[in-house]
Each structure stands twice: as C-alpha cells, then as structure tokens.
Amino acid sequence: MTHPLIPQIIDLATPIVQEMGLDVVEVVFQTNKRPPVLRVDIRNPDSDTSLNDCEQVSRALEAVLDETAIMPGAYVLEISSPGISRYLSDERDFVAFKGFEVNVTTNPPYKDKKEWQGRLQGRDDKAVYLNRKGRAIAIPCSVITQVQLAD
C-alpha cells in the first residue's frame, strides 16, 4: 500500500527534478525506520545519474519539503539513482535496454507460464517481444504484470 504522502511528495518533487533536466523514477517512504526515510529515485535521461545530480536535487527538495512542512517530524531524505536491477516501465526504458536479458512476469499465465526470460527486442501497445534462444515470442501486454532486467 502506498503511503498517503507519496502523491503529494511526487507533486512537489517532479517540477524541481524536471527543471534540472532529470526524471523522478520512484518515491518510497519507509516509515518502519527511525527516523523514517524518504527515498526519491531520479534518473538523468541523457547520461548516467551523477552524485552531483543527487546532491542538487537533495538540496532543492529538502528546502521545499521544509518550507511546506509536509513531512511530519524528523526524517531522512535520500536521493539516489534507481540502479540497473530495476523494472522497465516507460518507452525510454524499453528502447534503452533493447538486447538486454529481461524477466517478464504474467498474470494470468501466458501459454501456461508465469515467468518468461529472454533478450528484449522491443515493445508496442500490443506486446513485449523477446528473443528466446533464437526464437521470437510476443507476450501480450494485457497479461504482463512486470518486466525487469535479469540479474
């Protein structure tokens, strides 16, 4: 279940991050830690996300969060890159990782399988296309629950 503050934080963070030429990938509020941790994953669409990118976003977002007093009490703000072992979600991900090994999870099962692995060939509005040992397969988007880079 998503923490109720997440949509508000996304609304605050997105224009700040976009003004720097970056994208917000994910926001997670870990309330099980003391103090709680607010993690914002960012991505530089033009190159690797740098430490400088994270530092700039951290300073700017911290100022806005403090100004709006949206965060209850003490918290730790972490700005990071989503890393390579992540889920593919938007068109840019599917283009950038074409040719990489991916794991595709389906529900309900597709052709009696819930887990598929292969080299990503592409995606359109109908299917995700994989190359499995030289054989092309199209998995319908309607049954896909997630696509993640393989370990």
UniProtKB/TrEMBL annotation:
What Pfam families has UniProt attached to this entry? DUF150_C, RimP_N
* Any single Gene Ontology cellular-component annotation: cytosol
UniProt entry keywords in alphabetical sequence: Cytoplasm, Ribosome biogenesis
Q: Which residues form the Ribosome maturation factor RimP C-terminal domain?
A: 88-149
GO biological process assignments: ribosomal small subunit assembly; translation
- Signal peptide as annotated in the record: none
Main subcellular location of this protein, as a coarse class: cytoplasm
Q: CDD domains from the xrefs?
A: YlxS_C
Q: Which family is annotated?
A: Belongs to the RimP family.
User: What protein name is recorded for this chain?
Assistant: Ribosome maturation factor RimP
Which organism was this protein described from? Crocosphaera chwakensis CCY0110
Q: What is the lineage of its organism?
A: Bacteria, Bacillati, Cyanobacteriota, Cyanophyceae, Oscillatoriophycideae
